[in-house]
Amino acid sequence: MAAVTEFAGGLRADGLPAALSDPFRLTAVEATGLLDTGPEDVFEDLAALAARITGAGRAFVTLVDADRSFWKSCIGVDLTDVTDRQNPVHESFCYYLVGLAGEPFVVDDAAADPRTRDHPSVAPMEIGAWAGYPLRGPGGEVLGSFCVIDDAPRTWSASDLTTLATLARSVSAEIHLRQSLAASQKAHRVSADLAHALQQGMLPPVLRPVPGLETAAAYLPASQSAGEHVEVGGDFYDLFRTRGAHYGAVLGDVCGKGVEAAQVTAMARYTVRADADAHASPAGLLRRLNTAMREQKAERFLTAVYTTFRLTPAGLAGRLALAGHPPALVRRADGRVVQLGTPGSLLGVLDELSLTDVRFRLAPGDLLLLYTDGACEARPPRVAGPAQPMFDDADLARTLAGTHGLDAGATVDRLTAALAAHHGGWASDDTAFLALRVPACP
After folding, report:
1. How does pLDDT run across 208-264, given as a tens digit for each residue?
2. For the chain, which terminal residue's Cβ has fewer other Cβ atoms within 10 angstroms, N or C?
3. How far apart are CA 61 and CA 37, in angstroms?
4. DSSP code per residue over 166-213
5. Sheet-wide strand order for 337-340
6. Angle between helix 41-54 and 158-201 (nearest 10)
7. From residue 179, how far is each of 40, 329, 434 by CA, in Å?
8. What is the pairing mode between strands 214-220 and 431-437?
9. pTM (whole model) above 0.70
């Protein structure tokens, strides 16, 4: 064997090509995910086509590791058990393709050809003629072979060989496609996990308890279509103590998604926390945030609502400012819902802003709801037929009124359920809620 076949990489101790044991090649073979798997239509069809066009009795799609040839497809050989669809590598002609670095290996008369006449499989496997082309990995590694076998010696025509070369490339392309799809799906899962972790990092893991006040929040990410790249959204909220008996609550929405939006989101949240003690006025703090965004040349604009408040013997007293954000909603203890806040300039675009503080009070049983526009611009997924109505401001207010008597947590749960029912679980935009309620008198 070795005297008539020169293998560029030399031989192993057993006399077979050293290339069989190349670790990079073996890694590529393993990465196909095809070893020890059952027959599949795409490979069966291509092998059957090769057998039919060439008139050969048998056709194989073979993966070759260091020790064996595994037959992913074996047309003309009646084997259904996966453990039987293989043979030791020294009994396979496929090692020639590996040792020859992927050059085609074609034999018209296996018993007479000096390269194969002493091969141990010629007689037992009734190999009269053999023709094979390499299956290649993404890096050019020889994964195995696409071959046909005839029981009797024959001369393979140029048409036969062209067909085999074309079908071998088709098998390789199918393998590459599967690997690319698997890699894409893995990257998508990793991206989704990272986006989720990043988004969660922008939200308080648990709302800080405020003695004498019920609090609840929720973040609902936009739905992702199958295969769509997952990106972190720009909605965020926070609740924290400022100075003395005062607290601050902020909820915002950065335009867009992705890394740039995440950077602005992180900067906004931590700027608000860092500067809250120095600004008793919500409008003043939002102006400070706008200055920070302009100084850092943030690529995104931001809408936000910020409120400062303290608990009083009569309930809660606070001030609130809107910066390009939807108005807050107050659900009174008797179920009435009113809007709160004066429309103001969004942040990150202009140096001069129009922002207004509005004072408010909550009595026992009253609830303040802050939310992003995903809660009042919810649309069902697009389907054939007339456009479906949007869940708008009026729907949100009406749903909130229907939560009369519920505590903060149950109220947020009811709102998120109403949105899910409207859009069927498919959210077109991220949505955040933050609810503060003065407990009702016993």
Report:
1. 889 999 999 998 876 544 344 444 557 889 999 998 899 999 999 888 766 677 778
2. C
3. 12
4. HHHHHHHHHHHHHHHHHHHHHHHHHHHHHHHHHHHHTS-SSPPPBTTB
5. 214-220, 431-437, 367-371, 328-331, 337-340
6. 170
7. 16, 51, 44
8. antiparallel
9. no
